[in-house]
Amino acid sequence: MLDTLQHKGRRKQLLQQLSKKYNFDNRVIEAMNRVPRHMFLEYGLDHLAYMDKPLPIGARQTISQPYTVAMQSHLLGLNKYDKVLEIGTGCAYQTAVLVEMGLRVFSIERQRSLYLLSQKNLARLEYDSPVLFYGDGFAGLPQFAPFKGILITCGAPEIPQTLLKQLTIGGRMVIPVGTEVQTMVVVERVGENDFVKTEHGDYKFVPMLEGVEG
Questions:
Q1: Residue 147 has pLDDT above 80, yes or no
Q2: Is residue 214 in a domain?
Q3: CATH number of the domain that 105 lies in?
């Protein structure tokens, strides 16, 4: 599948619409403009790629709607070369956006089929810098900690304490918290045992689950 002029035009139009809804960091919008979202979707969904809506990617999971991807990326507040942990690789669209922002990306996926899909998608588009793992997101990656940012792309029933410990002081976690509907929460680590939380609206995500699925 190619990234045609038509795709690029639709993508630019979508991002202009998103920028009217919220004053996103330009680095986020520019990164999203470089990522062909249609190339992360199942065959036959190409025509829906640049609508602001979530879409199925298999394994009962979805690719987040572009507005949500922009918001989570924006709320991280990271700079080029910062190290970020993503929980829930999915099809790797959000992963690619983080890479295009110049971040050092580590990402965990608990569904084996999606872990393999994410590898395939990133390789096809020649993204070779993200480090992908098949594992339990609740455990994080302590061997690579601390992280300047942790981005969770699924709805957590509560904020995992294990992951908070993997944030560097001054780092931020962006996490949707709740069951039926989630509140987007930013947790900033301001001291060894001190954290500041802010809330940024309601969203709807697939649930964050423990363990792995083969």
A1: yes
A2: no
A3: 3.40.50.150
pLDDT at site 43: 83
- Rounded-to-integer distance, Cα 144 and Cα 165, Å: 12
Phi, psi of 42 (to 5 degrees): -65, 155
Structure tokens at 136: 């339990």
49 occurs within a structural domain: yes
Q: Which residues are catalytic?
A: 64
CA quadruple 204, 47, 33, 80: dihedral sign: positive
Tokens of 57: 């990617």
Tokens 């309601």, located at residue = 202
pTM listed for this prediction: 0.96
CB burial of 83-103 (b: ≥16 within 10 Å; e: otherwise) equals bbbbbbbbbbbbbbbbbbbeb
pLDDT for residue 67: 97
Whether the Cβ atoms of residue 98 and residue 89 lie closer than 8 Å to each other: no
Which residue range is the domain that position 45 belongs to? 5-203
The distance of Cα 95 from the centroid of its chain, to the nearest Å, equals 6
3-state SS, residue 91: coil
Please give the tally of structural domains in the chain: 1
